[in-house]
Amino acid sequence: xxxxxxxxxxxxxxxxxxxxxxxxxMAENGPSAxxxxxxxxxxxxxxxxxxxxxAVKGDYGRKRAVKEGCHQIMHAIGRAAVWDGKSNLSxxxxxxxxxxxxxxxxxxxxxxxxxxxxxGLGSITTVCSGIxxxxxxxxxxxxxxHGLGHGVMYVNGNELFISLEACRALxxxxxxxxxxxxxxxxxxxxxxxxxxxxxxxxxxLLYPCDAVDAEYKYACYLMQASWMLRGTGGDFxxxxxxxxxxxxxxxxxCFQSLGREASGYNYGHPxxxxxxxxxxxxxxxxxxxxxxxxxxxxxxxHSTDEAMEFCALFRGNISxxxxxxxxxxxxxxx
Length: 334
Hints:
Layout: H1 19-29, H2 31-41, H3 43-60, H4 64-68, H5 70-83, H6 89-94, H7 99-116, H8 139-155, H9 160-167, H10 173-189, E1 191-192, E2 195-196, H11 214-231, H12 236-244, H13 251-264, H14 270-277, H15 284-301, H16 305-311, H17 317-332
């Protein structure tokens, strides 16, 4: 369990992903998914980003399609804040909101990098320097450098390996890892009719994690459980087995990724998330799944209450360690 703290150093994208819901949204709505994104984004021109975000929040609890496609809708609002709102980076971030796994900020970076064009990607090392509180790894700074990963994918037509190389130009290890996370997250959600990737395989659920260089594997496996679950029909037991078979140094990352999904499948039902994590073998499989689930709850609810309730469902050292990680993540990582 001592290694667990290492996995919360990067405030990675545990807060970001409800991908299986997004797949359902696209499958159910087809072309209307893009139309819905356009409808909310068009509100930016008239009333600003805040009005569009408020409209999404108002519809979130009433419309299933909005709830399931919320992250991508917020992407569209973020892009519109740059394109239609004519906001610069600082202004767009000031108008922002982390609702739906920070999708708005990701969209802002997509819009900004799109305006810069592929010839401007050489200057991405300085894009986030004016966002503020860089030295403290603030939430806005994280969303900026993580959003760069989404942005370079957007500009490069979802070409994953080219986008990873763009992120590699960033100076710091933390910045590079955050950007890599954005690339892999964008790859995972690029499965709709109008948003596709060539870097996921139905006959190899570990791809591209089993094909990228070691430098990128941590960020990749931290996202990959979403795709692995889709490919196994949501069978957590099968995905635990797949994680068990990857490179030893990344297995705990894969189990943590599975914990995020256990939480995401069961918001409001912590005992159900517990049941899914306990499908793993005793020891690090269950422990890292539990930690991943607890961290996701902090991110989703913007509170420690639900996560601590989840931690209390367990006994002994894991309950105590779960609570410690929740406190650390709430302070430094969410």
